[in-house]
Amino acid sequence: MPTTPASQPPLPPPMEIPTLEDLALAHKDPETSLQKVIRKSKQQPLVPLGVFVTCFALIGATRGIRNNNKSLTNFMFRLRVGAQGFTIVAMLLGTLYYKDSNYERYMKHGEEGAEGAGKAPVKTKEDMEREKRALWFLALEEEEKRLKRQQQLEEVKRKAQDAFEKEKKDAAAA
Question: Is there a contact between 17 and 171 (Cβ–Cβ < 8 Å)?
Answer without folding.
Answer: no
